[in-house]
Amino acid sequence: MSIKIAIAEDNSFLLNAILEKLSFFPDLSVKHKAYNGIDLLEQLDKDSNINLILMDIEMPKMNGIEAVGQVSQKYPQIKVIMLTVFDDDEHIFKAIQAGAHGYFLKEVDPRTLYQGILDTLDGGAAMTPSVAMKALRLLRNPPDFSQPVEEIKLTAREIEILEQTAKGLNYNQIGENLFISPKTVRKHTENIYTKLQVHSKLEAVQKAVKNRIIEG
Fold first, then answer.
1. Is Iron one of the keywords UniProt gives this record (predicted)?
2. Which of 35, 102, 132, 197 fits 81 for a cystine, CB–CB 3.0-4.6 Å?
3. Nearest one of 131, 119, 25, 44 to 88, comparing CA atoms
């Protein structure tokens, strides 16, 4: 199955360099090429059937960190890897906090970038090693895991729907993002209510966060 990629990069020379790196791998298909965050969001509004975005940080009109935040809110199913020259703490942490799933410096070689794309789509967090070391500093303020949680078993699809519900999306928006009908979303939501023993979206999200099923 082809992996559909979008690239947000305002420098045409660097954009071509990224395209050349991806060209070695026939299962990657570049669907969108955007020159800033606004351009990217406009293209996604027309067609959001994308698996992953390679995102520059410094771009005119809307930078990559702002764009990641908006993509994360509107299209939480799309993975985002930052591809930038910046490796300072501020950019790394702002990007991760905004919702980036991975972070590579532009010097990354084609094979490492390709494997990072696969790992990220598989739920990993691909990073240049030096960036990963800096990101680990976040562990200095770890969440409180001392509180016990209930044993609640949700399916992967139910957790996906719950994550999107937590972002304030309605049945139609969730259905569009996950390529299922609003009626199917409603049915999954009813099952979630039953399993969590709740009666509203708010209660469901609060209980899921409390039991560390989704992030708050």
1. no
2. 102
3. 131
What is the chain's mean pLDDT, rounded? 87
pLDDT tens-digit profile of 66-79?
999 999 999 999 99
Distance, in Å, from the CA atom of 1 to the CA atom of 4, rounded to the nearest integer, reads 9
d(CA 214, CA 160): 9
Token pair for 56: 């520059």
Written as six digits, the tokens of 151 are: 């044993």
Q: Tokens 């010097």 correspond to what residue?
A: 107
The number of residues in the chain equals 216
The residue type at 3: I
* Exposure class string for 73-101: b at 16+ Cβ within 10 A, else e: ebbbebbbbbbbebeeeebbebbbebbbb
Contact by Cβ (8 Å): 56, 10: yes
Place of tokens 């966060």: 209
Contacts of 31 (CB under 8 A, 6+ apart): 4, 5, 6, 47, 49, 50
